[in-house]
Amino acid sequence: MRPPSLHHRTDVPARPAIPAQNRGPSALHRFNSAPAGTAESVLLGCCASPHWARRLAAHRPYPDLTALLAACDEASYDLSPAELSHALAGEPGSGLPHSRAPRAAHTALSAAHAAYESRFGHAFVICLDEVRPSDHLDQVLSGIHSRLSHEPDEERSVAADELRRLARGRIARLVADPGHAGSPSVAV
Q1: Residue 136: which pLDDT band, with cuts at 50, 70 and 90?
Q2: pTM for this predicted structure
Q3: Which of 54, 71, 88, 137 has the highest count of CB atoms within 10 angstroms of its CB?
């Protein structure tokens, strides 16, 4: 009796061949191969710090999203106070453009934002990536109200961490595989 060949195993049921899909370069590959100025411009949409964007663009290519997110975190932690101020100044307020909340809720949100900006000198930032859209208004209002009690140095640290989380989420969406549902991809 002859041993089964490695190319033809009789103990494994036949499977139909899956044709290779030609989807083109991944968003991460396009990001890695984009001109530096283009990559920096796209990164500024993730975090408004030119230093942060230049640093991430300069360290390309990234082998995978995990490495890119690690570099994002490191660059975020290394922002100087002036660079952090610049990045925070570039953040839009945490308005709720898609909210169907009553007008009174939007008025309360505007008043809370104004109080926060008056106290800390920059827009309130909060990452809502893991919060259901129906809970955004409550999360933002409770976040502002609880953080208004912070001392300025403590709040600056919290805002820096929220900014880092926002940048991570934006980068993840930027280089997401368009084949994964719920992960919009941005062309670089």
Answers
A1: confident
A2: 0.78
A3: 88
Residue 112: φ, ψ to 5°: -65, -40
Judged on CB neighbours under 10 Å (0-12, 13-18, 19+), 117 is middle
Residue 186 has pLDDT above 50, yes or no: no
For residues 177 and 165, what is the distance between their CA atoms, to the nearest angstrom? Answer: 20
- Interval 104-125: pLDDT, tens: 888 888 899 999 999 999 999 9
Round to whole Å and give the CA distance between 171 and 72: 8
Could you write out the DSSP letters of every residue in 62-129? Answer: PSSHHHHHHHHHHHHHT--HHHHHHHHHTSPP---TT----HHHHHHHHHHHHHHHHHHSS------T
Of 58, 56, 123, which Cα lies nearest the Cα of 84?
123
Query: Alpha-carbon distance 43 to 167, whole Å?
Result: 9
Nearest alpha-carbon partner for 64 in 184, 178, 175:
175
CATH assignment of 35-174, among 1.20.1250.20, 2.60.120.810, 1.10.3330.10, 3.40.50.10490: 1.10.3330.10
